Amino acid sequence: MEGIYHYKKANFIKSITDMNQAPTPRLSEVLFVGKSNVGKSSLINALTNNKKLAYTSSKPGMTRLLNYFLIDDKFYFVDAPGYGYSSKKDLDYEMYGKMIDSYFHNNEYLKLVVFLLDSRHEPNEDDLLFYEYLMYNNIPFIFALTKVDKLNMSMKAKIKKNLVAKFKDFDENKLFLVSINNYRLLEKLKDKIDSVI
């Protein structure tokens, strides 16, 4: 599987709080976003085959900034702070909202949002609000349901049903099941990212 499911080269570039600080040269961007502790950093590490690239923690709310990673010298992965609960308590909704609005505003370089959801839990109010934000602003995105290796067959069967019930106008073509331990699923996600870059 070497070289199929992951990118060959990845480097951390910088962390920012405002798009005026965005790295140069400006390149296409793929944003990873979801609630705290959903597995954004772990997924980035799996897609780049580098467990130390993006900082991971068992405590939610540890990613504080928009973190840029240069992928294969062609485009950026952007790791966003998790919304919702923060163990540090100081990443409030007002600050998060301003940073995310700044990121999305007239960002011609954003090609895809990878919207992460924990496959073991039903979407919560924060997930619904962010979904509505993406839909209202016509931002291109896909769902990445993480940690599917922890589900049994009956739980996997309920995933689509739960999403259809929760998300208005749900499009199953946007749904990708992922696990950092399943190379085939990672390859499908990588292929999708490659297709839009």
Q: What low-confidence regions span 5 or more consecutive residues with pLDDT below 50? A: 57-62, 85-91
Alpha carbon gap, first and last residue: 22 Å
The share of residues in extended strands comes to: 15-25%
The SS-based structural class is alpha/beta
How many alpha or pi helices?
Answer: 5
Under the CATH scheme, the architecture is 3-Layer(aba) Sandwich
Largest sheet: 7 strands, mixed
The radius of gyration over CA amounts to: 16 Å
**Strands in their spatial order, largest beta sheet:** 1-3-4-2-5-6-7
Q: Percent of residues in helical segments?
A: 25-40%
CATH top level assignment: Alpha Beta
Q: Please, what is the average pLDDT? A: 86
According to DSSP, the number of beta strands is 7
CATH superfamily: P-loop containing nucleotide triphosphate hydrolases
User: How do the SSEs run, as a string of H and E?
Assistant: EEHEEHEHEHEH
- From the spread of the alpha carbons, the general shape counts as globular
What's the domain count? Answer: 1
Looking at CATH, which topology would you report?
Rossmann fold
